[in-house]
């Protein structure tokens, strides 16, 4: 077996709550980088985050340039998004597209944190959509439930909408 090149991936996003698809991002990106023999530190994101590079006043152009020029980017595709179009629509991303790896998730799965939060508020099961330790953490802390929203157990996002559970937190490990 060929030796593996060390890979460090840095991701951003709410991961609120973290889903199996969030965890899959890392696996898919790592496999892609091992196949292409590209070591180093890379910024990992889904196509939805890549799209936010176009959102006015969210990212500074110099920060986008530093990410893609110095470190590079691994973007995992997501249904309903056009990462190639996002690159072509940005002069900075176009200039450094040689340092952007677009990766397709072979198993399409539309699990989103937004859907998970909604399902939990409606009392629906999220078994097999989240790691068991995350489900236990959510239950133990009464996050994303009808009760928690009525008690004001949430935070407001930039649009003033309530987000349950506050900032993303790491659930305890299940060791």
Written account of the structure:
This protein has 175 residues and is α/β, with parallel strands linked by helices. It has helices at 20-36, 47-52, 61-71, 83-88, 91-95, 113-121, 132-140, 146-150; strands at 7-11, 40-46, 73-76, 100-103, 154-156, 162-164. The strands form 2 sheets. It has a 4-stranded parallel sheet with strand order 1-2-3-4. The chain has a two-stranded antiparallel ribbon with strand order 5-6. The longest helix has 17 residues, at 20-36.
State the end-to-end CA separation. 29 Å
Shape estimate: globular
Q: What is the residue-averaged pLDDT?
A: 78
In total, the number of strands is 6
Which segments are poorly predicted (pLDDT under 50) over 5 or more consecutive residues?
152-175
What sequence of helices (H) and strands (E) makes up the elements? EHEHHEHHEHHHEE
Q: Beta-strand percentage?
A: 5-15%
Structural class: alpha/beta
The number of distinct helices, counting runs of at least 4 residues, comes to 8
| Main beta-sheet annotation | 4 strands, parallel
Rg, alpha carbons: 18 Å
How helical, in percent, are the residues?
A: 25-40%
Strand order of the largest sheet: 1-2-3-4
